[in-house]
Amino acid sequence: MENKNFEFLITGGGIAGLMMAFHLRKAGKRFLVIDNKNEKTSSKVAAGMFNPISGKRMSVNWKAEELLSQLHQDFQEMENLLGVNFFVNANILQAFGNVKESNDFMARLDFPAFKQYVDADSTVTSAIKNEFGLFEVLGSGWVKTAEWINAFQDFLSNEGRFLHEQFSWNEMIPTGKNWHWKNYEFENIICCEGYQYDQNPYFNWLPFKLCKGQVLLIDCKGLNEKYILKRGVYLVHQYDSIYKVGASYEWDFEDAAPTAIGKETLIEKVKQMIDLPFEVIDHLAGIRPTTRDRAAILGQHPAISNLYIFNGLGTKGMLQAPFLAAHLSKHILNAMPLHKEISLQRFHQFYTSGH
Ligand SMILES: Cc1cc2nc3c(=O)[nH]c(=O)nc-3n(C[C@H](O)[C@H](O)[C@H](O)COP(=O)(O)OP(=O)(O)OC[C@H]3O[C@@H](n4cnc5c(N)ncnc54)[C@H](O)[C@@H]3O)c2cc1C
C-alpha cells in the first residue's frame, strides 16, 4: 500500500490490537498495526481458553452471553477470512480439590445464571483425579492463539496494514490535528500495548496491577483427552500427546522470564491432577495486563480526542477481546457510549495534565 496516511494507528498486535484491527477492517477503515513480533507476549503464551465461569468463587463472567456470542461470530468470520481453523469447542472438566469446593459449587446451583453454564451430573470418563467429584463447564473452549496471531498478522501484512517494528513514542509527533511518525500520518491512535503500557507517556498513569503467568508444554503419551481438564491448573490438549499446563498467577515478580520455582509448582499440580508419567518439553512465561479492579480499560484519552486505549484484558483476553473491540469500534465510529465498568473514565481521577 503506497498511501502513508491512515485513519488509525494501532500500537500493539496482540489479542487486543488484532481484534481491534478486525473490527476496523470490517468497518472499512484505513489502519496500520505496528508490532515488534515478540514471541514471549502474554497473547502468544496464553492457552487461549474461554470460560464463562470465573475464579474460586465460580461467578458468571460480566456479560458472559454477549461475550461468548461475539467470540463465536468473530472467529467464524476470522476462520473464513484466513482459511485456517483456530477455534476449538471443548468443555472443561473441573474436579474439586476438597469437600468445601464441592459444597460451594452445590450452593451455586441455586442461581439459574450459573446453572446454565454447568453440568453437575457429568458422566464423562477421564484421567483426572476426582475423589471429591467434578462438573462440566459448558460453552467453553480455546483458541490456538499463537497460530491465529501469526496468521492474522501475515494476512494484514499482505494487505499493507501491518508493520513489524519496535515503536518508540519519542518519534511520534502530535501535529495538532494528526499524529506524525516517520513518513506516516495518522488521524487517530488506539494503544493496545498490553503490559508495556508504561512505555507510553500518554497512558502510563493508569492503575494497572500486572500479573505474571507461567505455562508448561508437556508430553503425556498415556493421556487421551480432548476435554480441558482443570484441578488447580488446567491442561489443554494441543496436538498428538502434547498438552499445555497453566497457569501461575504471580503478583510480585522481577521480570518476564520463566523461573525454576514456577516450573516445579506446575509439575506438582499436574501430579495432583493425573496419575500418568509426563515429560516437560517447554516452559514459557508472559505478563498479563491486569488492572486494579480486574476490568478492561477502553476509551478516549482525557485530554486528547484522537487518542484511545484498549488494554487491561487481564486473565480473560480471549473471552473479552472480540466483544470489547466491537464495543470500542462502535464508540469511536458511531459515538455509542461505553459501558461504565470498562470505561477509561472511571480512572480519570488518576490523570494529571501533562501526560
Ligand atoms: C501464562 C498465561 C496464560 C494465559 N492464559 C489465558 C487463557 O487461557 N485465556 C485467556 O483469555 N487469557 C489468558 N491469558 C491472558 C491473555 O494472554 C491476555 O489477556 C492478553 O494476551 C492480553 O493481550 P494484549 O494484546 O492486551 O497484550 P499483549 O499480549 O502483551 O500484546 C501487546 C502487543 O504489543 C506489542 N508491543 C507493545 N509495545 C510495543 C512497542 N513499543 N512496539 C512494538 N510492539 C509493541 C507486544 O510485543 C505485543 O505483541 C494468559 C496470560 C498468561 C501470561
Task: Give an overview in words.
With 355 residues, this protein is of the alpha+beta class. The protein folds into 2 domains: 5-45 and 146-207 and 293-350, 3-Layer(bba) Sandwich (FAD/NAD(P)-binding domain), CATH 3.50.50; 92-138 and 211-288, D-Amino Acid Oxidase, Chain A, domain 2 (2-Layer Sandwich). It is built from 8 helices and 21 strands. The chain has helices at residues 15-26, 42-45, 64-82, 99-108, 112-115, 145-158, 260-273, 317-334; strands at residues 5-11, 31-35, 49-50, 53-54, 59-60, 87-89, 92-95, 118-119, 134-137, 141-143, 162-164, 172-174, 179-181, 184-191, 211-219, 228-231, 233-239, 242-246, 279-288, 297-300, 307-311. The strands form 4 sheets. Strands 1, 2, 11, 12, 13, 14, 20 and 21 form an 8-stranded mixed beta sheet that branches. An 8-stranded mixed beta sheet has the order 8-9-7-16-17-18-15-19. Strand 12 and strand 13 (179-181) form a beta hairpin. Helix 1 packs across helix 8 (317-334) and helix 3 (64-82) packs across helix 8 (317-334). The longest helix has 19 residues, at 64-82. 43% of the residues are buried. It binds flavin-adenine dinucleotide (FAD). Flavin-adenine dinucleotide (FAD) is lined by residues 12-17, 34-36, 38, 41-43, 45-49, 166-167, 192-196, 199, 213-215, 246-247, 286, 288-289, 311, 313-319.
